[in-house]
Design brief:
Structural class: alpha/beta
Number of helices: 11
Strand content: 25-35%
Distance between the termini: 42 Å
Strand order of the largest sheet: 21-22-23-30-25-28
Shape: globular
Helix content: 10-25%
């Protein structure tokens, strides 16, 4: 029997600003370990199976178009070749994303069973997680739609709850009585005391055809749009692009609202697996190792008389003295200081940045591209300085700019520079000049990363002043 993991890698993780941003959200960051949360999720199901009779296939990943190269590179780094990477042209919540994945998998295996996993969750007891999957599998084969309910350890008010009912015919599996929205403290305490309420994890196991059938029953518009998006999809390098018109027209809804709260086939499988959705800085503090004073630190951090505090320094020393229960996060272009019991308000900061047309919620000063990355060093009137890294074999598009000229100085590595009809090899301490309006391209033909400094000068320095004529990554 084959199980197909489906990893949902959408979302912006706004509550973990300033580290998580739209272009580099939390699932693509190493928040808990050295590997990113997406990598940890993929490794959790790679080469593993709940039992000898079950085969876990390579994961199918669903993500946004802007994250496609990062997702592919992160999978390459851990030697996992995904079954596919589905690209959503726009975000439409989990019900359409899973429906598209279901139709994609049905085209491969008519009996496909889907294990739906968010890319940004922590699971500390992987063995217990696989045991829960095996219990759910007994019911899923017959058409049930299983969700994994986390055994609560406290009366949390930030999670939704699932109330279990009668036994569902398999060990430790129950029919779902109801889903409950995030409760107040008193209600949450009553749920935990009752013993038959579980945190809603957002993880599911079901047959692809069973999910499609229930979705068509309760949300036919979503079902039809998702099917059309897959029928009209097309290949782009190693990616599968869902049809933009069909998917954009799809209503936005979650699996819970669209299907699980309405179907008669929902079952809940209790899971005590050391789970956390890392939905805030305080949640991240809870899951990370702490010092004797309950502090969590990362980076160049100095503490004196500090308790219960999370401090993360990305680019410089951060000194914290005489405080308790704070979150302090420093990046190149932003600093967050908040009390741990106020971190849910971080989303308001992101909303403020959007209304002011700022960019600190969109990307960091270091921006990743399929060929490598660049980082802003300095900017002023009519000039900008960047540090550029081109991976071995990386090749920027053949392009030109209407409003700026560029000077390139090679710091290390070898650069192949096309400027008009001329092609030149540059090495360490050599430089070149790209005039305004000149077709040009930068490549790294070597086996080591190419590092260079770019100085831009001109009347307009925005990233949208690029005209691409040819691009190996099909961005023209």
């Amino acid at each position: 029997m084959k199980i197909y993991p489906v990893i949902l890698s959408g979302g912006a993780g706004t509550r973990l600003w300033p580290l998580s941003r739209a272009v580099l959200p939390k699932q693509l960051l190493p928040l808990v370990a050295d590997k990113t949360m997406l990598q940890e999720t993929a490794l959790r199901v790679a080469g593993r199976a709940p039992s000898a009779t079950v085969e876990l296939m390579q994961p199918l990943i669903v993500c946004g178009n802007e994250h496609r190269f990062l997702v592919a590179e992160q999978m390459r780094e851990i030697n996992i070749k995904p079954l596919g990477i589905l690209l959503e042209p726009v975000g439409r919540n989990t019900a359409p994303a899973v429906a598209a994945a279901a139709h994609y998998l049905k085209g491969i295996d008519a009996d496909a069973i889907m294990l739906v996993l968010p890319a940004d969750h922590v699971i500390n007891d992987v063995a217990a997680f696989h045991q829960a999957v095996e219990r759910a599998l007994m019911l899923v084969k017959d058409g049930s739609l299983a969700t994994f309910g986390i055994v609560p350890t406290a009366p949390e008010t930030g999670y939704g709850y699932i109330q279990s009912g009668a036994g569902a015919g398999a060990e430790q599996c129950y029919k779902v009585d109801r889903f409950v929205e995030k409760p107040n403290r008193e209600t949450a305490e009553a749920f935990v005391a009752a013993g038959n309420y579980y945190w809603n994890s957002g993880m599911f196991l079901f047959r692809a055809d069973a999910y499609i059938a229930e979705l068509a029953k309760f949300q036919p518009a979503i079902a039809a749009a998702a099917e059309a998006a897959v029928q009209k999809d097309y290949r782009d390098l190693d990616f599968c692009r869902l049809d933009e018109a069909a998917f954009t027209a799809c209503p936005s809804d979650s699996i819970d609202y669209a299907v699980m709260e309405k179907t008669q086939h929902a079952v809940v499988v209790p899971a005590d697996i050391g789970w956390n959705d890392v939905g805030s800085w305080s949640a991240l503090h809870d899951v990370l190792p702490k010092d004797a004073n309950g502090n969590v630190t990362r980076g160049d951090v100095y503490l004196d008389d500090v308790q219960g505090t999370l401090v993360r320094a990305e680019s410089r020393i951060v000194a914290v003295v005489g405080v308790k229960d704070l979150v302090v996060v420093e990046t190149n272009d932003a600093v967050l200081v908040a009390h741990k019991n106020q971190v849910q308000r971080v989303k308001q900061i992101v909303d403020h940045l959007k209304t002011k047309d700022r960019t600190e919620h969109l990307h960091h000063t270091k921006v990743y591209r399929p060929w490598g990355c660049y980082e802003g060093i300095d900017i002023g009137e009519r000039f900008q300085v960047k540090r550029i890294t081109v991976n071995p074999g990386g090749k920027l598009s053949l392009q030109m700019h209407h409003h700026r000229a560029e000077h390139w100085i090679v710091v290390s590595g070898t650069a192949r520079v096309t400027c008009g009809e001329k092609v030149t090899l540059l090495t360490e301490n050599e430089s070149t000049y790209i005039p305004i309006g000149m077709n040009h391209r930068l490549e790294n033909p070597g086996k080591l990363p190419l590092h260079l400094i770019e100085v831009q000068s001109g009347s307009y320095l925005g990233e949208d002043d690029i005209v691409r004529f040819e691009d190996v990554y099909q961005r023209t």
